Amino acid sequence: MTTSVDPVAPVVNRPAKAKQRPGDRVFSTLTVVAGALILAVLAAVAVFLLVQSIPGFFAPAADFKGDFSNFWEYVWPLAFGTIWAAALAMLIAVPISIGIALFISHYAPRKLAQGLGYLIDLLAAVPSVVFGLWGIGVLAPMLQPFYTTLVEWFGWFPLFAGPASGTGRTILTVAVVLAVMVLPIITAICREVFLQTPVLHEEAALALGATRWEMIQMAVLPFGRPGIISASMLGLGRALGETMAVAMVLSPSPQIIFQLLTSQNPSTIPANIALNFPEAHGTGVNILLGTGLILFIITLAVNMLARVIINRRKAFSGAN
């Protein structure tokens, strides 16, 4: 008995499944473990801070240094000082970093661009304590006459209201130090993103008669905008968590102050923890850990906001 085959029936060609090599299985398993380890460490840190912070949230007024009645009254000036110093640093660092990155990627000769790139990368390796010493010994005395002039000329503006600090150790000096510290991070990432701009986009803009700066405006900056945001958020994270430079330069005051040039300045959460943790005991340790939890939440919120902004332009991104 013969079996008839329908000549019209389609023949389904199923691709043969490639045999997975042992090295591929080991590598994929290690990548999954590494990714899960990052999440586990982050969750462990969050749980530790939360558990240890609970006694500090309900600590009596006698456990706080200064005239504070509860934890939130204690942490609010510190959170303000942290965000205020980091925001001022980003206002200074981001435009300068973008300018340096554009100069290296589109203006400077190749040999000069390579040298500047190496210098920028080396600047990121300088310890923060060195920046703190530079801020105290060089930058603050150098800026003090400038602060006095600002108060004389623009003292009517609330941010520049006097009296000017006699030592130059102000929140603006701290912002300049933080800007120098985050500048190599932002510059390096922006430089790499600008170099990834499609050549066809740049050539099309130049072919239409655009100048080099107009080409950068039309092609490079729109393409690199998500990368600029990513670089800025990384720099902001460094500025928010900086400890030694702020603790060494700033003369802290436990209050909310917007003036940039006075001797009284709001402290930051990392600097406050570094200055008070060696002498803390009992509930005082829980209070400091509670402020660390607030800093953890602020940093996490900033990074989540940056990711939302980047995802809106994911289709035209130099950072993804």
Task: Explain this structure.
Keywords: Cell membrane, Membrane, Phosphate transport, Transmembrane, Transmembrane helix, Transport. The protein has 320 residues and is mostly helical. The chain has a single domain, classed as Orthogonal Bundle (MetI-like fold). It has ten helices and two strands. The protein has helices at residues 22-57, 71-107, 110-123, 128-154, 171-195, 199-207, 212-241, 244-249, 269-276, 283-311; strands at residues 252-253, 265-266. Helix 3 packs across helix 5 (171-195) and helix 4 (128-154) packs across helix 5. The radius of gyration is 27 Å and the shape is flat. The chain starts with 21 loop residues before the first helix and ends in a 9-residue tail after the last helix. Mean pLDDT is 82; it is low at 316-320.
How do the helices and strands line up, and which of them pair or pack?
Blueprint: H1 22-57, H2 71-107, H3 110-123, H4 128-154, H5 171-195, H6 199-207, H7 212-241, H8 244-249, E1 252-253, E2 265-266, H9 269-276, H10 283-311
Parallel strand pairs: 1-2
Helix pairs in contact: 1-10, 2-5, 2-7, 2-10, 3-5, 4-5, 5-7, 6-7, 7-10, 9-10
Function: Part of the binding-protein-dependent transport system for phosphate; probably responsible for the translocation of the substrate across the membrane.
Protein name: Phosphate transport system permease protein
Transmembrane segments: 26-54, 74-104, 116-140, 171-189, 287-310
Shape: flat
> What's the total number of strands?
2
CATH class: Mainly Alpha
Termini Cα gap: 63 Å
Architecture in CATH?
A: Orthogonal Bundle
The overall average pLDDT, rounded, is 82
Helix content: 55-70%
Note the beta-strand portion: under 5%
Stretches with pLDDT under 50, minimum 5 residues = 316-320
Strand order of the largest sheet: 1-2
The helix tally amounts to 10
Under CATH, the topology is which? MetI-like fold
User: Structural class, please?
Assistant: mainly alpha
Largest sheet: 2 strands, parallel
Name of the CATH superfamily: MetI-like
Rg computed from alpha carbons, rounded to a whole number of angstroms: 27 Å
Protein name: Phosphate transport system permease protein
Membrane topology: Multi-pass membrane protein
Organism: Leifsonia kafniensis
Subcellular location: Cell membrane
